[in-house]
Design brief:
The chain is α+β, with helices and mostly antiparallel strands. It is built from eight helices and six strands, in the order αβαβαββαααββαα.
């Protein structure tokens, strides 16, 4: 109930930008849907922009035009939602796709989690933030942080190895790539 009141108070001011940080967290699925659709209705009515901050990939895929995938406080990939989820370039985005359930996923292909822990944000590394968890990392990834760059029209990625994207996409769906102990 408090969440609904806070959302109503914020939207009553007709803001030009709505920043919704996990607006549906801890709500059941039916209430989540009602709340978010109400936010979208009001957003359209007052002609404002919406910045959604969430871990809920389905909420993003269903309601957003563009997405920025972040990891450990840094942008890893940015583009239109369909492009990022349909043709991801960054290994972290590939890992997120593997870990998210889908109706279209075949029964013989399990969900794959990303092993190990993220880096400390108290003393962030001067390298790729995903380096220690990335199955495609090289020594370059451990030496310098990649700059975000445009890899296709309107599609930006922070990875040293975007030239290997086809290989990464092909291998990323294999569980043993993410968990080397399965190769033993």
């Amino acid at each position: 109930m408090k969440q609904r009141v806070n959302i109503a108070l914020a939207l009553a001011l007709n803001p030009s930008l709505i920043i919704a940080d996990e607006p549906t967290t801890a709500l059941d699925v039916m209430v989540q849907d009602q709340i978010f659709h109400r936010i979208l209705e009001i957003q359209k009515k007052i002609h404002s922009s919406l910045l959604l901050i969430t871990h809920d990939i389905s909420l993003v895929a269903e309601n957003c035009h563009k997405v920025a995938v972040m990891y450990a406080g840094k942008f890893m990939e940015y583009s239109e939602v369909d492009r990022v989820f349909g043709e991801p370039f960054h290994p972290y985005t590939l890992g997120l796709k593997n870990a998210f359930p889908s109706i279209s996923r075949s029964k013989d292909r399990p969900l794959i989690s990303i092993p190990k822990n993220p880096p400390s944000l108290f003393d962030p590394p001067d390298q790729c933030r995903f380096y220690s968890r990335c199955p495609f990392s090289t020594s370059l990834c451990g030496e310098e942080e990649p700059m975000i760059r445009e890899v296709a029209d309107g599609h930006y990625v922070a990875c040293h190895h975007v030239d290997r994207v086809e290989e990464m996409r092909e291998k990323a769906v294999r569980e043993e790539i993410w968990d080397p102990s399965l190769n033993q």
